[in-house]
Amino acid sequence: MSQQLDDLVEKLSQLSVLDMAKLKEKLEAKWGVTAAVAAAPAAGAAAAAPAASDSTDFKVTLEGPVPDDKKIGIIKAVREVTGLGLKEAKDIVEGAPKELKASAPKAEAEEIQKKLTAAGAKVTLKGL
What we know:
Blueprint: H1 2-13, H2 17-31, H3 43-48, E1 57-63, H4 71-82, H5 86-94, E2 98-105, H6 106-119, E3 122-127
Antiparallel strand pairs: 1-2, 1-3
Helix pairs in contact: 4-5, 4-6
């Protein structure tokens, strides 16, 4: 049993934050429970949404206008976090401000914000 637990810990350690959030949601649905996740907030996320720190779900919004010199990187990041095609992601970026996720767990919302901010986008999180 100990080896099985060690293997499971190793596999879970290789998951991204987004995959962990999805796993959490699936386990909550299957078991009919709500899990509390303790995550260290990113400095940017904490500064962007200090009043919403008690919220568990967040609306993620891409703010506009998007700088032309960063547009391609932001489109790539939007595609990565949303799974949209190139045209749909481009439309979102060019039409900013746009909602990227209506409701996302805190860890997922912070991960999205981190990726898009690294690409040069301005993202806001609003607690629900």
